Amino acid sequence: MKKLTAALLACGVFGFMATPALAQQAEGERYKPSNELIQPIEPHVVENQAEVDLGKKLWFDPRLSRSGFISCNSCHNLMLGGADHLVSSVGDYWAQGPINSPTVLNSSLNFVQFWDGRAADLREQAGGPIANPLEMGSTHELAVSVLKTIPGYVDEFEAVYGDREITIEEVTGALAAFEETLVTPNARFDQWLKGDDDAITDQELNGYLLFKNSGCVACHNGPNLGGNSFQRMGLVEPYVTDNETAGRAGVTGQDIDRMNFKVPTLRNVELTYPYFHDGGAKTLSEAVDIMGRLQLGKKFEANEIEDIVAFLKTLTGDQPEFTIPVLYPNSDETPLANPWAPQESAEG
Ligand code: HEC
Ligand code: HEC
Question: Which residues does the annotation say bind heme c 2 (predicted)?
Answer without folding.
Answer: 216, 219-220, 291
